């Protein structure tokens, strides 16, 4: 078994794709009628689905919003230079949660929240 993709439910798929391009440099692989999109992120895709569309299939969901605590999940991006990636994300509207810090196991990690309030980790590879 392997992880195929992660889907983040968002209020505006187009605006979220634009944010992730500006903040993290990710390109949109495809977008379908504003209801679903996928970004180019390597082998495992990151997708965005419109919350209202998802709720027609699944019922009510817990929504991420900038003014509420984030849901108990995060999106993590592995980068070579966390400080540069963190500064770029904040410059383009990500809300800082924690600045880059070196963990006892050697990994450098920072956290931001995206335009919808979801938690995003920016980190180096674990050794």
Molecular structure report:
The protein has a single domain (5-123), classed as 2,3-Dihydroxybiphenyl 1,2-Dioxygenase, domain 1 (Roll). It contains three helices and eight strands; from the N terminus they run βαβββαβαβββ. The longest helix is centred in the first third of the chain and has 12 residues, at 13-24. The mean pLDDT is 96. The strands form two sheets. The chain has a four-stranded mixed sheet with strand order 1-4-3-2. A four-stranded mixed sheet has the order 5-8-7-6, covered by helices on one side. The chain is of the alpha/beta class and 127 residues long.
Features:
single chain; 127 residues; alpha/beta; 2,3-Dihydroxybiphenyl 1,2-Dioxygenase, domain 1; 4-stranded mixed sheet; 3 helices; globular
- pLDDT averaged residue by residue: 96
The CATH architecture designation is Roll
Helix coverage percent of residues? Answer: 10-25%
Question: What's the arrangement of strands in the largest beta sheet?
Answer: 1-4-3-2
Series of secondary-structure elements, N-terminal to C-terminal: EHEEEHEHEEE
Strand portion: 35-45%
Gross morphology: globular
Largest sheet: 4 strands, mixed
Structural class: alpha/beta
Global Rg: 15 Å
CATH topology (fold) name = 2,3-Dihydroxybiphenyl 1,2-Dioxygenase, domain 1
Q: How many beta-strand segments?
A: 8
Report how far apart the termini are.
23 Å
The low-pLDDT segments are none
CATH class: Alpha Beta
Q: List the total number of helices.
A: 3
The CATH superfamily label reads 2,3-Dihydroxybiphenyl 1,2-Dioxygenase, domain 1
């Amino acid at each position: 078994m392997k992880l195929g993709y992660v889907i983040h439910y968002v209020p505006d798929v187009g605006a979220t794709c634009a944010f992730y391009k500006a903040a993290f440099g990710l390109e949109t692989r495809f977008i379908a009628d504003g209801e679903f999109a996928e970004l180019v992120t390597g082998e495992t895709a990151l997708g965005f689905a419109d919350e209202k569309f998802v709720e027609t299939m699944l019922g009510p969901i817990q929504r991420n919003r900038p003014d509420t605590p984030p849901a108990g999940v995060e999106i993590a991006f592995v980068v070579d230079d966390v400080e540069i990636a963190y500064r770029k994300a904040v410059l383009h509207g990500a809300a800082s949660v924690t600045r880059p810090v070196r963990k006892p196991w050697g990994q450098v990690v920072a956290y931001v929240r995206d335009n919808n309030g979801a938690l995003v980790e920016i980190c180096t590879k674990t050794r």
